[in-house]
């Protein structure tokens, strides 16, 4: 974290992460004892601006690269070109075959107050896709969310009563 001015901070972070396969993915009915951990490299940069009345504005940009992500190819049901549904195969084995990329930005306006109105409003834009290194397939991740809006508010009526809402 770096203080740019008395009211402005710049934060950054990065990490290398590993997610080990579950016991079911290693030794289950469709398990594969030769699976490697999934790997991800993540970096983000945040600018935080303090405003009057206990309010802050925060903007964060992030980027993540993934490798060795697990996939049981053929296990998912899919709709064919003629409109029929093909059920997933029960014998599809887990393999490390996906690479992925995620990137996005999030903006948050937040107010923290001991009395009156507190809460936050946030908007995020992100993209997350995968490539199958064996079949060459490219597809958007199940967790791909292009536009996300969320809000939370809490109004303190007294030291014993408050009203809150979230969206």
How would you describe this structure to a colleague?
It contains one helix and eleven strands; from the N terminus they run E-E-H-E-E-E-E-E-E-E-E-E. Helices cover 3% and strands 60% of the residues. The protein is elongated and about 60 Å long. The mean pLDDT is 94. The protein has one helix spanning 23-27; strands at residues 2-3, 8-19, 38-51, 55-71, 78-79, 85-86, 95-111, 116-132, 138-140, 147-156, 162-166. The chain is mostly beta strands. The relative contact order is 0.15. Strands 1, 2, 3, 4, 7, 8, 9, 10 and 11 form a nine-stranded antiparallel sheet that branches. Strands 5-6 form a two-stranded antiparallel ribbon. Strand 10 (147-156) and strand 11 form a beta hairpin.
Strand content: over 45%
Q: Structural class, from secondary structure content? A: mainly beta
Largest sheet: 9 strands, antiparallel
- Average pLDDT, rounded to a whole number, is 94
Shape: elongated
Return Rg in Å: 22 Å
Keyword list:
167 residues; two-stranded antiparallel sheet; 9-stranded antiparallel sheet; elongated; mainly beta; 60% strand
Write a brief structural summary:
With 167 residues, the chain is mainly beta. It is 3% helix and 60% strand. The protein has one helix and eleven strands.
How do the strands and helices of this protein lay out in sequence?
Layout: E1 2-3, E2 8-19, H1 23-27, E3 38-51, E4 55-71, E5 78-79, E6 85-86, E7 95-111, E8 116-132, E9 138-140, E10 147-156, E11 162-166
Antiparallel strand pairs: 1-2, 2-3, 3-4, 4-7, 5-6, 7-8, 8-9, 8-10, 10-11
């Amino acid at each position: 974290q770096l203080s740019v001015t008395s009211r402005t901070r710049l934060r950054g972070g990065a990490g290398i992460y590993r997610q080990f396969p579950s016991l079911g993915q290693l030794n289950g009915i469709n398990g594969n004892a030769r699976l490697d951990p999934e790997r991800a490299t993540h970096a983000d940069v945040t600018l935080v601006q303090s405003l009057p009345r206990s309010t802050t504005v925060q903007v964060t940009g992030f980027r993540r690269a993934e490798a060795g992500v697990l996939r049981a190819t053929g296990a998912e049901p899919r709709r064919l070109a003629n409109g029929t549904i093909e059920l997933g195969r029960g014998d599809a084995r887990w393999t490390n075959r996906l690479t992925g990329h995620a990137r996005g930005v999030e903006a948050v306006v937040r107010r923290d107050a001991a009395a009156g109105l507190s809460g936050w409003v946030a908007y995020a834009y992100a993209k997350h896709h995968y490539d199958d290194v064996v079949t060459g397939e490219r597809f958007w991740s199940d967790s791909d969310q292009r536009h996300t809006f969320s809000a939370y508010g809490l109004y303190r009526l007294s030291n014993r009563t408050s009203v809150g809402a979230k969206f």
